[in-house]
Amino acid sequence: MDKNLLKSYRVIGQISNVISKVDSFDEAIKASLKIMLDNSAADYAVIWYVGSNDKEHLKPYYWISPVDLSKRSYKVGTGPIGKAYKKKSSEVILDFQKKPVKSVASDFEGIEIASVVCAPFEFGVVEFIKTTESGPFTEDEAEICQMLTLLTEISINENIELPDDSANKKVILSVSDVKREYQNGDIITKVLKGVNFDVFEGEFLCLLGESGCGKSTVLNIIGGMDTATSGTIKYLDTDLSTASKNDLTVYRRDNIGFIFQSYNLMPNLNIKQNLDLIAELVKEPRDSEEVLKLVHMDEKARNYPSELSGGQQQRVSIARALVKNPKVILADEPTAALDYATSIEVLTALEDVVASGTTLVMVTHNEEITRMANRVIRLRDGKVYEVTINHHPVKATELVW
Ligand SMILES: Nc1ncnc2c1ncn2[C@@H]1O[C@H](COP(=O)(O)OP(=O)(O)OP(=O)(O)O)[C@@H](O)[C@H]1O
Ligand SMILES: [Mg+2]
Prior knowledge:
By secondary structure, this protein is α+β, with helices and mostly antiparallel strands. The chain has eleven helices and 16 strands. Strand 13 (328-332), helix 11 (340-355) and strand 14 form a beta-alpha-beta unit. It binds adenosine-5'-triphosphate and magnesium ion. Magnesium ion is lined by residues 215-216, 332.
């Protein structure tokens, strides 16, 4: 039997198999793209989608790539992606180096693209990408990409709504090509190897990844507690990468609230005093009683930290972050030390924080928790590996682990 044909049968089997196991369309799409990527020669892959409201633009639905595409869109008919969708036939550019097409190449800032295959399906386009590092697609490989898209379309046969408005979101923090190295004597450890992503105002963003992949390092850099070796970090229009130590301190004090795995409450002050101490330091603090109410800890205002459970102490530390009235809250594994029920209480408090308009960036290694977030950025080996837009985030109380 033809080798490609045999391969397609296998892929169709794999895809139908995962689709029968997952219980939402989003999970089906994610699983299918992973299988497509595994079975093609591509380095990265993106699903572009035409929304139910805006039929003029293709927006990214899901992708596996080191670049945050959340705000990108293509007009139907323009660029290889827009053209493939309009003509309903694949656009294949085998060698960008011979025929540079800037509009696509610029999407992958910092990454040199060798070739792309843009394969249309009914509601959008699957884009397969190869970098110059791994060399361009052969014609056979390009054909397999197109076939994979067709197979997936056959397997997922469902009409869906795309309620994606990320193109209208305001970027509050942007991280571009951030690298962080440590030098110990002659040994240089590269921890972050070129991280790119945006944080949107008001969103709940999760940073996910295995232990040691650099999650805390990223969080500390965007919080101004650590500095990058190279690259740019911007908070609105302020460039943090060139800011002085003093400016970073002011930035941190005025805009950022931190929540850590350990609660770090002052043991000799009661709960309200712990908050008031922080309120003293900032220009426009929130009322400490009010924020304690928000996390349902107002009744414990006169108690001391040692008289509280772990979950209660963590809720107080959320209140302590909130009392500064920060634009952004950065939380590093806030539930790692807590049992399931207590974690849900803390996550519910964080959910309320986001609902009140504060941007939340939370580090976790628990996949289940990421279902609450608006977007999930998975780091692997010091780089962004994939970005997921949760088109239907769930409530903290629906999480199970
Ligand atoms: N001062 C340092 N010198 C050398 N290497 C360091 C230093 N600090 C951190 N690292 C390394 O940087 C990498 C990333 O650390 P980081 O704390 O960001 O990981 P993480 O993803 O938060 O992990 P975890 O889930 O375990 O908290 C680790 O491999 C760590 O060993
Ligand atoms: Mg960490």
